[in-house]
Amino acid sequence: MLALPAFFRSFIREWKSGELSLLAFALFFSMACVSALNNLGELINYQLDRQAAQLLGADRQLSSAMVLKKEWFTKASSLGLRQSEAQSFLSMVSHGENLQLAQVKAIQTPYPLNGHLTISKSIDNSQVFTSNSAPSAGHIWMGWRLFSTLAVQIGDTVQIGAAEFVVDGIILEEPGQVGDWFNISPHILMNQSDIDKTTVIQTGSNIRYQWLISGEPILLEQLYEYLRPQLNEQQQWFDSKSGNRAVERNTSRTLAYLNLGTLMSLVLAGVAISMASLRFSQRHQQHVAVLRCFGASQKHILTWYFLSILFLGSLASILGIILGYVLQPLLVSWLRGITPETQAPFSLRPAFLSFATGILILGAFSLTHLLKLKNVSPASIFRRQSTQAQGSMLEGYILAFILSAGLAYLYTRSWSVTLVVVLCCLFFILLVIFSLYVGFGLLASAKQIHLNWRFGFISISRNLGNSALQIIGMGLALTALLSLFLLRTQLLSDWQRQLPADAVNYFLINIEAQQIPPLQQLLKQHAIKSAAIYPMVRGRLIRINEQPVEQVLGDKTQEINALQRELNLSWTEALPDENRLVAGQWNSGISIEEDLANRLGVQIGDQLGFRIADQIISGKISSIRRLNWSSFKPNFFILFKPGVLDSFPKTYITSLYLPPENREFLMSLVKQFPNITVIDIATTLERVRSIFDNVGKAISLISFFGLLTGLIITALAMLSQSGSKKQETWLLKTLGMRRKQLLWIKSSEAFFTGFYAGLLAVCTAIAINFYVANNILGLSFIMPWRYLFGVPFVVAVFTVLLNHAVSYWQYERRTAN
Predict the structure, then answer these.
(1) d(Cα 782, Cα 769) in Å, to the nearest integer?
(2) Which of 246, 436, 517, 713 has the highest count of CB atoms within 10 angstroms of its CB?
(3) CB of 51 within 8 A of CB of 340?
(4) Range name among 295-309, 449-463, 727-741 with the lowest pLDDT average
(5) Is 768 a residue whose pLDDT tops 60?
(6) Among 116-125, 142-151, 176-185, 551-560, where is mean pLDDT lowest?
(7) What is the pLDDT of residue 622?
């Protein structure tokens, strides 16, 4: 049995001597990093789910072309879910002699269930308010485009069908606009109680019914399982994953980066603990020899030291986790731009997960070195000797790697990423060992190299074991840091490329062929930047290889949104911007988007059949494209070969960037081309840009924690050889070596060690980033040449400076005193 008072006295003595401080700080910062990452991951998942729900107007939405069954509402009520209904239809709206086709949505209170309507009571937006209620009976709210086309003001009366309504506000923002953006006409919100008096809706009228539902996820899933067998092709179920593709794609990238950050934090934690416990075991060999002389058993000694490290690790982990939670308000404030009105719930799950991770990593990586102490003999008190425990150490390292791989998969949920990172780390270790034994041994014997530099190679080759540990420790830490930093740089630059200051913020649709020349002339006169103009034909995918899609895909048909509606089919001579050919030959048949091809299970040579009006058009897939949905430019799932769809009625689409101060241009455009529909995506664009900016700050915080841990690991690598370096320095001084020459020799060894660790780390990080960027994040990998040549030199200089600082602090300062 251990005497607790003696145990704590020994622990306090070890802490005061500084033996445990670096291990504690390494674990503290590592666990703070892991805890912050866990918290951040949960926050982003929660916040983005809430944001998606606000864009949707509810947690779930069912859109139907037919009246919804009453028993469905009864089922939702029995589950305790909140509900609201809306009905949308097209109707002519008139004011005086002005007419305009508009999309009218009749809503009830509350609407929406998530988020809110933003309404202005004045043309200049000086009186803006938010609402979750329908307009009062007899009043309507209109989109700003109708004010121009109908020439109305706030308070004027317009006619819809047989009823007149007072215009009471301008719709600035409306959640719940899901589905096909390119079918959105100028819209109006009215009270559901006013539908009947318009007499617009008759038997056979084209109406879209929307059912908004919010509640607990498990209850919503129960409702969906109840509804799914009853849904048909005219009904679509939307959830938070059915929102904007740009947000969804970049959210998945961010979460993938956070997962990689967690994985790299585990690497940092493992290396830090391994280096710290190595130094701890080296410094306590004489102490263990004394204890063995007094009759202490191996079991007693190992238990004593392991409990000391376990107690310290638990304390450091708890403090690190607390720091991660202290930082949570800061993370929330950075993510507030995503959903301002939503408060993330407090959760202890990240704390328990981080603590368990910390203890497992601590045990796996410290036990390997602590097992060496059991082989210390009492005779070691009379002579210094290095203890060996090759069998135990090998088993310990294997256990540590298996445990690390398991934890890595737990966090990333990707065996491919885990395998790539683990294999790269193993390759790094083997390369260090092999190159040290071969390369540095040859350099040490090269007479052409100056003696001062050659002495550095000789020192490294003479202490290959310690040098290998030092380079491996520093190199793996640098690999983790560089992997995070390089990916962060690529992510942020990709976001900036996707959303430049002049990113398109308006779509123009329903353009007629004869309007293209005057429209292009108008845009040119006003120096408006626009994308290419593409034709569009509406068609529904109904066959795959001459068989109905329902027969080919079965129940999976209901899960593919592209099969539940008509698609916008187009064609073009050249491959569109933001499209990349990944397979096949361009413009010899049908070109399909990569993700849709994967979901449909089709490939080059398969045949697709589309119903366009009352005809069926078929064609073979000749190419597969990868689209950049984040560009907010016109993108198409399906592109035909030019000429195939020429006989069908078509309209045209383009997109443009319009500065906020040029909004009057839209008024003149709508007056000149009243049939053209202008879709404003500026609000969505700003929200996406806010997400990117705020998550970028959070990613920078992750890098900061990693940097702190990396600095500690580098210091530990230097301290691991401080004892032998102290003896070597005193010996060289005794032999008469001058201080300047001694300084040069120490600097050369540190320089070569740092340069080599930096070079291998950059190469390994580039290999990891190449795989992750291309296969996980969907980014175009750019070779970071400046890092390849610059980082090794920076690391070498930093290693020299840190080596001198450690040397001075460890023994030169004491010698001077």
Answers:
(1) 10
(2) 713
(3) no
(4) 449-463
(5) yes
(6) 176-185
(7) 92
Place of tokens 């294999």: 423
Q: Contact, 666 vs 506, CB < 8 A? A: yes
More confident position, 316 or 49: 316
Kindly indicate the confidence band of residue 389, based on its pLDDT and cuts at 50, 70 and 90: very low
Please provide the distance, in angstroms rounded to a whole number, between the alpha carbons at the two ends of the chain: 43
Helix, strand, coil percentages, rounded to 5, for the chain: 60, 20, 25
DSSP secondary structure string, 547-610? EEHHHHHGGGGGG-GGGSS-EEEEE-SSPPTTEEEEEE-TTSSEEEEHHHHHHHT--TT-EEEE
- How many whole angstroms separate alpha carbon 52 and alpha carbon 38? 21
Cα 599 from Cα 401, distance rounded (Å):
36
Q: How far apart are CA 8 and CA 3, in angstroms?
A: 9
The set of residues, in sequence order, having a beta carbon less than 8 Å from that of 461 and lying 6+ positions away, is: 436, 440, 441, 443, 444, 467
State both tokens at 471. Answer: 């380079």
DSSP result, 196-257:
HHHT---TT--EEEEEEEES-HHHHHHHHHHHGGG--TTEEEE-GGGS-HHHHHHHHHHHHH
Q: Which of 163, 293, 216 is nearest to 49 (CA)?
A: 216
Question: What pLDDT is attached to residue 221?
Answer: 87
Q: For 331-372, give the DSSP string.
A: HHHHHTTT-TTPPPPP-SHHHHHHHHHHHHHHHHHHHHHHGG
In contact, 183 and 651? CB cutoff 8 Å: no
CB 608 within 8 A of CB 543: yes
pLDDT computed for residue 276 by the predictor: 72
pLDDT at 620: 92
Find residue 511's DSSP bridge partners: 652
* Lookup result for tokens 């000789």: 458
Highest mean pLDDT among 187-201, 231-245, 405-419: 187-201
- Is the pLDDT assigned to residue 640 strictly greater than 90? yes
338 pLDDT above the threshold of 50: no
Q: Is residue 641 classed as helix, strand or coil in its secondary structure?
A: coil
Q: Which two tokens stand for residue 761?
A: 């780390």
- What average pLDDT does range 597-604 have in this prediction? 90
| Cα angle for residues 652, 658, 662 (degrees, 5° grid) | 125
Q: How many CB atoms lie within 10 A of CB 578?
A: 18
In this structure, what are the phi and psi dihedrals at residue 135, rounded to the nearest 5 degrees?
Answer: -60, 155
Taking only the tens place, the pLDDT of each residue in 686-696 is 666 666 666 66
Letter for the amino acid at 78?
A: S
Q: Which of 335, 262, 249, 357 is nearest to 46 (CA)?
A: 335
**CB burial readout 124-160, b (16+ within 10 A) else e:** eeeeeeebeebbeebbbbbbbbbbbbbebebeeebbb
Largest CA distance in the chain: 109
pLDDT in tens, 174-185: 776 554 444 455
The size of the chain, in residues, is: 817
How many whole angstroms separate alpha carbon 428 and alpha carbon 473?
Answer: 11
Judged on CB neighbours under 10 Å (0-12, 13-18, 19+), 314 is middle
Which pair of structure tokens corresponds to residue 65? 């072309």
Indicate the average pLDDT of the chain: 75
Residue 481 has pLDDT above 70, yes or no: yes
Give 518-544 as a DSSP string.
HHHHHHHHTT-EE---EEEEEEEEEEE
